[in-house]
Amino acid sequence: MKNFKKIAAAVTCTAMLVGYASTASAVNWLLLQGTEKQGTAPRAKVWGFMQPSYQKDYSDITGPEATRIGPNLDKQSQFQLQRARIGVRGQPFPLDNNINYFFLAEFGQNAITDGGVYGEQQAVKLTDASTTFNHIKGARVRIGLFKTPGPEEVYQGIFTFDYINFTDAMNQMMLERFSTGVNSTANGNNVLTNTETGWASFGAARDIGVQVFDSFKTKGGWDHSYSVMLGNGNGLSTGGTAEGEDLYLYWSSELALPGGVGPWSHGLKMFAWSHSGQRKLDMTDDGTANAVIYDRKRSGVGVKYRHKQWRVVAEYLKGDGLIFQGPEKPNFGFGTPTSRQDLRGESDGYYLDLGWYIPGTKWELDLRYDAYNRSKTHANLAAEFRTITYGIQYHFNRKTRFTLNYSVRDAKAVGSAPFANLKSGLEGIDDRLALQATVVF
């Protein structure tokens, strides 16, 4: 945490040296994803993007820890259409341009559409369907299914993401896999089966609910935004294990800087967020229906600077409760809760991302370091993940680019009494190569 504070302070001070007034527009994801320009937006604008990719994992395939390419975890190298999304957005009512809508569906191969042996499988999945009412100054209201405001890495438009894979902290803490909740075939002290521990829905950083939000520009080029949202707490599904509603809070302050267009606009942004809710699960495998309510809390802070050829991003986040133990353990781990699950544990993580667009060329160089400390206080499950990702991007134009990432990965068990298979499995994790094309239309 101390290192993160130093990084964030250094980034902030460096960027604020630029601190002059600007008429540029900053990247405000609340407004970009939830509103349209009043009076100028079409009734229906078709848009989308595709991201075909190839990945190769060099980990030990014989280890118990999942080291295969997601979402189906079948192979250590494969081509796939990682994302293919098409949507429609606009202002549908000519008599009232204060109302707009946002619709998006996923056709690609990822956890949203293909959960493998542990989750649901379907060719197409609706990811966004919302309507925004802009009638109240300072309090826009958005209802439906949409992205929940949170960490920049997952909240930004994914087609602007400078890497192919998420950091371990984001992937394991923020992209929630919703378990089936009750072990209907539980028959005593046996190891839970795949059926019992499958997951019923993928969060995809989305929820169904109502959001109140807006943005306020102040002197000096600053843009301040807030959001308060209540959601079902079940991700892309209407029902599940959530007990009551989830509360999502978000704040950002951004200084607009000259350069960039739309989602690629330049600026200095500082932000903080919080997610809190509860899940009702029966994880005892004792043949009796005795579900327990567990808290699930996530929070974080971050800073992002993009100007001229430079990009610097740093984020820190922490999680309390329902600590995810890996893609092959969707219900937080096989076995009894006392040893192989961490339903009330703690995790935290951070990353530092640097990017340099080589002047006079179409090439961009990227470097990211990320750390994740999973189940920090659990004697058997505590683990550390450390990854350095080297990246190269070639920009054919503003909406089309090619990305190459090579990730040097290290993981180890750090608990006082780690399980032998956990220790050997983590030690078997090795490097990963990823290539991807991004085409926005």
TrEMBL record:
Protein known as: Phosphate-selective porin O and P
Source organism (scientific name): hydrothermal vent metagenome
